[in-house]
Queue: 2 jobs
Job 1
Amino acid sequence: MNIALVGYGKMGKIIHQLIQTHTAHQVPLIIESGQEDKWNRENLSAIDVIIEFTQPDVVLDNIHRAFEFNTPIVVGTTGWNKQLPEIKKIALDQNQTIFTSSNFSVGVNIMFQTLQYMSGLLANFPEYKPRIHEVHHTQKKDAPSGTAISLADILIDSLPQYQGWKSTCDMPRDKDIPISAMRIDPTPGTHITTFESDIDTLELTHIAHSREGFALGAIRSAEFIQDKKGFFDMNDYFKSLK
């Protein structure tokens, strides 16, 4: 499989290294910031899948460019959640292929599924009050992280007493899931969901030791969508494993 890397920061470089050392895939095209001229039919004609890790202010342009050249794209950039329904509709209407996730780590996605089960049980016990805390490196632009927001969305779907989430900097109300965020180098990513009552405390924690888990997940996602059409996320990938 020929993979194009769009964005060649720390994640792009790790993905490139893992492709070279762990797979038989090739990376014939790398598009860095300021190299928009590389988006052309000649370059993209040889590409099976794009893996994109850039910034929230350019991710939509990159998605539309991928669609223009009918090239499947894996999007690892976070911080553009509000545009997700629009992009999903375009992908389905135009028979394009996109795979996106707030986090490509296998461990994080197992945590998501575990939290769905936990929060379904805890819906019967409103005395447990949830909160989310996340820590990342200082180069991460969005806060709270996309993963923290995904955790909050799981809780909101399961716990009827909560209507939304809010950063602890913005004084959450009783009906908000509070999310606190810290930026400390060189933390790859830590997420803690806590349920606290007067009697005891439950915690569900994921601590990333390196960025390789996210990179491997992105490569697996590219392999998953190579011959597919539509809108996909990590739930679809996990379903394919059953």
Note: The first helix runs from residue 10 to 22.
Job 2
Amino acid sequence: MNFHIISVVPEALASYLNSSIIGRAVGTKKIKVKILNPRDFTKDKHKKADERPYGGGPGMVLKALPILQATEKILARKDPKKTKVIIFSPGGKLFTNELAAQWAKKYTDIVMISGRYEGIDGRVKKILKAEEISVGPYVLTGGELPALIVLDTVTRKLPGVLGKDASVEERRVASGEVYTRPEILEYKKKKYRVPKVLLSGHHQNIDGWRGERKSL
């Protein structure tokens, strides 16, 4: 799977992409991540990728041409049927685990256009026929965090990334309530114990307990 992130602040992405499971997935070549900065596709000496909005209003808007040229460079040798282009928007289609699983099976390349400031020139979406995706009903400073959320969620669905299929939470009986050693935790003169069922060794009862906690 190849992930392409178009962002005017690529430095905001580096730390997460080099860490933990995602960093290992990159290192073992389970995924490839490329970041393109629209500023590199501008021609003025200041590398300006934004402009004031038509119609007035506060803030700046990311210009269409640098983003279109960056995307064009990505798409030049890609199969359109196996490439997904998305733009992040609070009003877009809600991103879910189910959607991530579909994309992991269907696509080889996912292009994510990260907005900033007051947004992206509306012609980008029309020209690229990009789908608007939302990671939640709120507004963020930019599209970099949503891009990392999508990358992380899709990557976890790829074979071999988590080592064992059972490591994927949605494929096993899991709960929001988990415990580890010690069996008895003493804190501020009070003792907190691990639920007895988890110490029983009775897997059917344990799965039942976890299933109950998962539905709470």
Note: The CA atoms of residues 15 and 23 lie 9 Å apart.
